[in-house]
Design goal:
single chain; mainly alpha; Beta Polymerase, domain 2; 3-stranded mixed β-sheet; 20 helices; 4% strand
Amino acid sequence: MEKKIGLKEAYCIGVGGMIGGGIFAVLGLSIYLARSAAPLSFLLAGTIALLTGYSYSKLSMRFPSRGGTVEFLIKAFGTGVFTGTLNLLLLMSYIVMLGLYAYAFGAYAANLFHIPREVLSAVAILLFTVINAFGIILSSKTENLLVFTKLAILLGLASAGILFLNTSHFHVEDYVNIVRVIAGGMIIFLAYEGFELIANIGNDIKDVSIYKKAYYLSIISVTLIYVLIAIITIGTLPFSIIIKAKDYVLAIVAKPIFGTLGFLIVSIAALFSTSSAINATLYGTAGISYLIAKYGQLPQTLSKKVWKNSYEGLLIISLLSILLSIFGNLESIATAGSCGFLLIFFFINLAAIKLRNKLKIRAIIPLFGAGFSVLAISILFWNMFTKGPKNILIFMLMILSSFLIEVCYRNVSKREIQEYIDLNLKKREEKIQKWESWLPKVISAIKNAIEDAEVKLLGSIKRGEMEKSTDVDLFVITSKSIEREDVKRIIRSVDKTLENIVDVKIKKKEK
């Protein structure tokens, strides 16, 4: 049986997605904008991520799908041009992220090897383009090891850096106005992009209740790390040095704390983080968005060669990413990426509001998430526009091209976005709707295996609220010492596809 994804693996997917390269790329840029208030900027961005994480957790539990973000948008807004445009905007945002990761890789590598940044950025994307073309992927154990290594390095840097803090760097007079604080937070919002990758686990999750814990734990822990890193950076280095080395400032922070060895370790960590982020984005999220854009639906099984029969997509995405990393400046790239994901997350929060009855939630939290997303985009947009209209050019081109490509491609190819991106979700929902045909067999199997067991149906189905059902809830009462996994094993013996559909709660029978 194929191993299902538990909390640890789901947590690592979220943390690995967020600490993928963004913090290494835009830490200096955030401090440049918000100065001493940069920790508040990171906290603000983390708050928006957490509010949106609430919407994602509820949507993931109700609609577990490898289509993730796009699946949720379809369920709320249908399969028309609007949703197709949002899927392409998501793809464009991932292309911008690839450009940012490559930019950061080049900046840290250039500081080590004294080779032009542009050359190193292009080499990084070309290398992982070849790797993805041949379908070479890292194992989940290797990915988990990389995630915990990155966490250990950042936490080690933050912990040791406390001893080197200079509190005079945090004078109130160094604080900037609230607009720049928010702009500083939103331009680094892309450092939080990645938690939404948890949604792409789909039906491979052990239990849909894991989604909620994975989103919250990953976002909160990354927010705390980012805030600590911002504090250590400001408290350790003079502002002039931060600005001078803003493209690779995290490596410079390590120097006064750990010496040359620390500088080298953090630089290498940055190279590993940004390169793994390039690979993961090409292999996973960008590939999925491209397949949806091309075919309107994901294939029933995603092989290791995600790009099989779609190599033109891999080449187009890689080429655009290289051009961005070479000719774009860091601030413009970061602004475009942050605005792109903030806009997508705004619509995810709207989707949660629209589907609130199916999700069994109140609208207040998604409403705050949507409101803060709009406010953040507006302030970031205005701040960049006042510096010069060209600073928002990439973002405007992303929106316009997403719409035009979707309209033209629909008309030429006659491709339609399907009602279900992930056919496994369709099968799951059909199985839940037909619960009366298989539930008696499950109950009978449980009672045969556990002599004195009483089995009761609970939850939405019991109440006749089928559209709110994320699974089928069973309550098992017995005097035997039975674990939840034991009951799950019995259910798998009846039908292995029911493992993620039937949720079991056990109560010890009173003597």
